[in-house]
Amino acid sequence: MDRKAFRELIERFWEIAGGVSVRTKILGIVLGGTLLFGLTTVLQVRYALHQVLVARTQDWGIAMASDLAARSADLVLINDLLGLHRLLQDAILHNSELRYLFVLSPQGEVLAHTFGTSPEFPAGLIEANPLPPGAPYRLQPLRTPEGIIWDIAVPIFRGRAGVLRLGLRDTAVRTAVNTVTAWLMLTTMVVSALSIGIALVLTHLIVRPIRSLVEMTERVARRDFTARATVWAHDEIGALAQAFNTMVEELAQQEQTRAFYLRRIIEAQEEERRRIARELHDETGQALASLWVGLRNLEQTLDPDTLRTRLEDLYHLVDQTLNRVRRLAFELRPSVLDDLGLVAALERYIRDYRERFGIEVEMQIVGLDERRIPPTIETAVYRIVQEALTNAAKHARCQRISVLLQASPRLLSVIVEDDGCGFDVEQALQAGRESRLGLYGMRERAQLVGGTLTIESTPGQGTTIYLRVPLESA
Ligand SMILES: Nc1ncnc2c1ncn2[C@@H]1O[C@H](COP(=O)(O)OP(=O)(O)O)[C@@H](O)[C@H]1O
Ligand SMILES: [Mg+2]
Hints:
Blueprint: H1 3-19, H2 22-77, H3 81-94, E1 98-104, E2 110-113, H4 125-128, E3 138-144, E4 147-155, E5 163-169, H5 171-221, H6 236-300, H7 304-332, H8 335-339, H9 342-357, E6 360-366, H10 375-396, E7 400-407, E8 411-418, H11 425-432, H12 438-448, E9 452-457, E10 463-470
Parallel strand pairs: 6-7
Antiparallel strand pairs: 1-2, 1-5, 3-4, 4-5, 7-8, 8-10, 9-10
Magnesium ion binds near residues 390, 391 and 438.
C-alpha cells in the first residue's frame, strides 16, 4: 500500500470515527479493549496449555511404554505369546489414551498386538518409528485419519528381546485445550457485556452534561440570557459548565449595559433635536418673523431718515440671526473639521470657548502639522476634547486649562488638564451609569477608535484626561 492510499484510509477512518456520537466512541473503545484482551488471553492460554499437556502426556506415554516393556521381557524370553497378548489387552483396556500396543521380536516380527483379529495390521506402521540401537526410546508423531498419534518405541531387555511399540492419542490434550478455550471465550463474552453496561452508565454521566450545555448554548444564541448550565460534577466538564455560566452572566451584564446606553443615546439624540427645533423656532423663526414685519413696515415709510434707521435695525437683526445659525451649524458639526482637519477645528473651538467662558486655554500641538489623521479618529478626538472642556467649564470652576496633542507615527495622545476642583472619578462613573453620558461617552468614543481613555482626578486638585489612540501607519 502506498502512502497516499494509507493517508486516505486514515482520513476515511477519522471521518467515520468523527461522525459517530461520543457514546458510540466510548462503547467502541471499551468493547474493543475487552475483546482484544480476551482474545489474546485465549490464544496465549491455548498455546501454553497445549505445550504443557503434550509434554506431560508424552512423558506418561514413555513411562507407560517402559513399564510394559519391563513386564513383557520375561514373557518374550519364555515365548509366552498368550501372556504377552493378555498383558497388552489389559493395558489398552484400562487406558483410553492408548490407541495400540504391539511387540516386535528382535527380527522384526510382530509377536503380539492389539489390533484385533480380522482387520489387517496397519501397513507401514512397523517401519514408521525405527528404534536406533542403544536408544532408550524413540517418539514419532504420526499423522493418521484419526488425528495425531504419538508412536513410542522402547527396547525390551535392552533390545535383546525386541521392541515394544505404543500408540498414544492426542484427544485428551485437545479436549482439555478446547474446554479451557470455551470457558475463556464465555468469560470474555460475559466481561464484555458487563463492560458495555458500565460504559453505558458512565457515558450517560459524560454525555448528559454535554447535551445540557449544547441546549443552553442554543438558548444563549437565541439571546436568552437566563440559560444556566447545571454543574453535575467537579471534573473538566463541570469546569466547562462553570465557565459557561460565568460567560453568560458577563454577556447578560453587557447586554443590559448595551441596551441602557442605546436608550440613553437615542434619548440624547432626541434631546439634541428638540434643542435645535426650539432654537430654530424660537430664535431663528422669531427673527425671520420680525424681519418680515420690519420689511412690511418699510413699505409705508417715506421719510428717508426713518427709512435709514429702520434699515439699520433690520441689518443688525439679519446679522444676529446669521451668527446664531452659524453657531448652531458649528455646534452640530463644524465644517472646518471636515475641510481643514482636527487642529484647525480645535483652534476654532477653543477661540470661541475662551470668549464664551473667559477661561484661559493653552493649546500645544506636537507632530501634527499638515498631517491628516483618519476622519473617524478626528471626530472622536474632537468630541472628547469638546466634552472635557465643557465639563471643565460646567463643573471645575477652573482658571486655566491646557490641551496637548502629540502625534507619533503610530500613536496620537491627547492630554486635557484643568486646575479646577476635581472630583471622585469612580463615583462619577458609577453615578453616570444611571444618568449622565458625558464621561461614559468619552470612554466609548475612545474605545470605538481602538483607543483608551484615563481620567485622573482628586477632589481639590484638578482633573487630567489622557487619551491614547493608535494610528495605523498606512
Ligand atoms: N473637569 C471636571 N472637574 C470637576 N468635576 C467634573 C469634571 N468632569 C466631570 N466632573 C464630574 O463628573 C460628573 C459626570 O460628568 P458627565 O458624565 O460629563 O456628566 P454631566 O457633564 O452631564 O454632568 C459631573 O457631574 C461632575 O460632577
Ligand atoms: Mg459632561
